[in-house]
Specification:
The complex is a heterodimer. Chain A is mainly α. Chain A has helices spanning 7-32, 48-55, 57-90, 98-108, 111-126, 130-155, 159-167, 172-183, 185-201, 217-227, 232-254, 258-261. Chain A has two domains: 1-46, no CATH class; 56-261, MetI-like (MetI-like fold), CATH 1.10.3720. Chain A contains twelve helices and no strands. Chain A is globular. Chain A starts with 6 loop residues before the first helix and ends with a helix. Chain B contains twelve helices and no strands. The longest helix of chain B has 34 residues, at 58-91. Chain B has one domain: MetI-like (MetI-like fold), CATH 1.10.3720. In chain B, 78% of the residues lie in helices and 0% in strands. The chains are: A mainly alpha, B mainly alpha. Chains A and B meet through α1, α3, α4, α5 and α6 of A and α1, α3, α4, α5 and α7 of B.
Chain lengths: 262, 282
């Protein structure tokens, strides 16, 4: 086999990428259309559907809820996930192997089952507020990303640096914050971003954890699509894509994009 | 001067550091899901009653088999196209390669609702595809493409091809070029090199990709909901209907249990097979 892939393979690859990109281009086009129905190519360029997002109070409310949940959930997942990832690497010998598997369970079990179980056993069972259930659900579904990404960074960290600092008199907790954490900064940023985007886009867990006045943006989009077929949803989609591009640009600046492919 | 305590961390420190995350997973994931599954066996009608009534319903059995069929087809299509694409990406160089990877990552970071919605615009009765076909005179009246199994599969492949490509690129990159060159310089045809050298070396990666795609499409909700509707009800959409529309908790729990058992069985079986084929793979 020569170095250059067979022309047929190159053609197939080009078609696959076309298949991946065209629908997204169409969404952007539809969002810019001046018509009251969804169409492509756009007829008359307008940003009215972007303004419309913020005129519908359900969208305004759910955007705020989604951002709150994504931020808080990610922060809590980092708070409990960083010590866990550290311990899994630092105490590799002392801790059992199944502990590592435990932390990826939230992405192994079907998300929709998890959402339903939280509703049935937690919200209905204890009468806990929906916002709390939503926050717990999102924290858990992003935890595997946090633990795995930070574990991957810690795997290449030389723990003898930490030992050196401690034997020179630095307190263990202080050492963690001044020596260990700065060395895995890239992993923490990547984990934050992956977790935030995952939470923001989640459907299956949030599906069951909505109630009067509380819902997330993707659930609101689903509800809107089933009732109206106007370009508002296309504009929200474009807004979300812009957010993703912005986030990817930040990753590119700080870590290089190939980091995400790992 | 006080004696400085030399920090000798023990296993207990490790347990303490993992405790919050461990308790969160056990308390909020394992216990609730366990309770849902255990609940299905405490039916007053008999221990397996909910399952007997599930499989006695022609509609619900159809839904289960439809879900399995959609997931299997999605996995096969994603494997074929994902493998070819990943091969080209793994052999690309420099800027082109980063661009190809970014273009695969970007859809993955775009939400599932947005990606299913895009196909709603394309496949709808007055959608772009129908408009194009009508304008070209290929069809005389709009085709009914939405709410078919084909629409759901297209939407699912769209969802999962990037995942397959990204998980295979790494595997294919790790296959040394020398191995392939050796094969062809020893006289193997490109076809023989592909079937006898490249493909066997990529099998562990293909299995991992296939498990990700199969379990992902088996439990996907937004795509079958938007592109399949009620006509293409799958387990995930049935679960949602039972729980949120009919308030049939036992029915919903039974579906949840079936989904969990099938998903975990597939993950365990495939990782067992992957280990047997290649003991070095994790």
């Amino acid at each position: 086999m020569s170095d250059r892939p067979h022309p047929i393979l190159i053609v197939v690859t080009a078609l696959v990428y076309l298949f991946l990109m065209v629908p997204l281009v169409i969404v952007v086009g539809a969002a810019l259309s001046d018509t009251t129905y969804l169409t492509f190519p756009p007829q008359g360029l307008s940003l009215r559907w972007f303004y419309n997002i913020f005129e519908i109070s359900a969208f305004r409310r759910t955007i705020v809820t989604s951002l709150q949940i994504a931020f808080l959930g990610t922060m809590i997942a980092l708070l409990i996930g960083i010590p866990a990832a550290y311990a899994l690497n630092r105490f590799r010998v002392e801790l059992p192997k199944w502990l590592g598997t435990l932390f990826v369970l939230p992405i192994l079990v079907p998300e929709i089952v998890f959402g339903f179980a939280l509703l049935k056993s937690f919200t209905v069972g204890t009468g806990a507020p929906i916002f709390l259930a939503l926050l717990i659900g999102h924290t858990l579904i992003v935890l595997p990303y946090v633990v795995r990404v930070i574990s991957a960074s810690l795997a290449s960290f030389d723990f003898s640096i930490e030992e050196a600092a401690i034997s020179l008199g630095s307190a263990p907790v202080k050492t963690f914050f001044t020596i260990v954490l700065p060395n895995v900064r890239g992993g923490v940023i990547a984990a934050f971003i992956l977790a935030f985007i995952t939470s923001l886009n989640d459907v299956s867990v949030s599906l069951f954890l909505t109630g009067p006045g509380i819902s997330t943006l993707p659930i609101q989009i689903l509800a809107h699509v089933e009732q109206f077929f106007d370009p508002t949803v296309a504009s929200v989609s474009v807004l979300l894509m812009f957010l993703t591009v912005a986030v990817m640009a930040i990753v590119e600046r700080t870590l290089g994009l190939t980091f995400l492919a790992k | 001067m006080t004696a400085r305590h030399l920090w000798r961390p023990s296993g207990a420190t490790g347990w303490a550091l993992t405790a919050p995350a461990t308790l969160a997973v056990i308390g909020f994931l394992i216990v609730p899901i366990g309770a849902v599954i255990a609940g299905t066996f405490m039916d007053p009608r008999g221990i397996f009653a909910p399952y007997i009534s599930y499989f006695n319903s022609g509609f619900r059995t159809t839904v289960l088999f439809r879900t399995l069929q959609i997931s299997a087809l999605t996995t096969i299509i994603s494997l074929i196209f994902g493998f070819m694409t990943a091969y080209v990406v793994s052999r690309a160089q420099g800027k082109v390669k980063s661009l190809l990877i970014v273009a695969a990552v970007f859809p993955l970071l775009t939400g599932v609702v947005v990606r299913a919605f895009a196909w709603l615009i394309i496949l709808g009765r007055n959608g772009i595809l129908n408009q194009t076909l009508l304008a070209l005179g290929i069809v005389n009246e709009p085709l009914e493409m939405l709410y078919t199994q084909g629409a759901v599969i297209v939407g699912m492949v769209y969802l999962f091809v990037p995942l397959m490509v990204l998980s295979l690129v790494g595997v294919l990159e790790n296959i040394p070029k020398d191995v392939l060159q050796a094969s062809s310089s020893l006289g193997a045809s490109p076809v023989a090199t592909f079937w006898q050298v490249l493909l066997p070396l990529a099998v562990p990666g293909l299995i991992v990709g296939a498990v990700l795609v199969f379990t992902g499409s088996f439990t996907a909700y937004a795509t079958p909901q938007l592109l399949g509707g009620e006509r293409q009800t799958v387990l995930a959409t049935l679960l949602q209907q039972r729980a949120m529309v009919s308030f049939d908790w036992v029915g919903a729990s039974t579906i949840a249990a079936i989904m969990t058992v099938i998903t975990i069985t597939i993950v365990l079986a495939m990782s067992h097979i992957a280990r047997r084929i290649n003991p070095m793979a994790t």
